[in-house]
Design brief:
It is built from 3 helices and no strands. The chain is mainly α.
Length: about 120
């Protein structure tokens, strides 16, 4: 046979009081939970969204500026190369226009000769 301890009425009252105190404290925690300020929360959300959008715009703008800077440097390099090519072509033109070269071509390739006497008529 199983023996059950006899409950002391004073102990059972204490157990009931402890359990009721625990339940009431839980109820108080739920009951006294602070209310959320929905207006403040919505304003914080709006502020967060606005700040996020502004930050994204700054990042996008700096990216665009960087890409334009790279394009500008590439264009400047291309302009410098074209100027060097232009100078080279000017030197080549000057060599081709030289009178000594023209005289040499006339004598060797065309068989022309410089006349010994020149006659002028008035």
């Amino acid at each position: 046979m199983r023996r059950t301890p006899k409950n002391n009425p004073a102990q059972s009252n204490q157990n009931v009081e402890i359990q009721s105190a625990e339940k009431s404290s839980k109820l108080r925690l739920i009951k006294y939970r602070p209310k959320l300020n929905h207006l403040l929360r919505s304003r914080c959300r709006v502020a967060f969204v606005v700040i996020s959008i502004l930050a994204m715009l700054v990042v996008i703008r700096s990216g665009i500026s960087a890409s334009r800077g790279y394009a500008l440097v590439a264009t400047q390099n291309q302009a410098q190369q074209l100027e060097l090519e232009n100078e080279r072509l000017k030197i080549e033109i000057a060599k081709l226009k030289s009178p000594s070269r023209i005289k040499q071509i006339a004598q060797e390739e065309l068989g022309m000769d410089v006349p010994q006497k020149m006659y002028f008529s008035h």
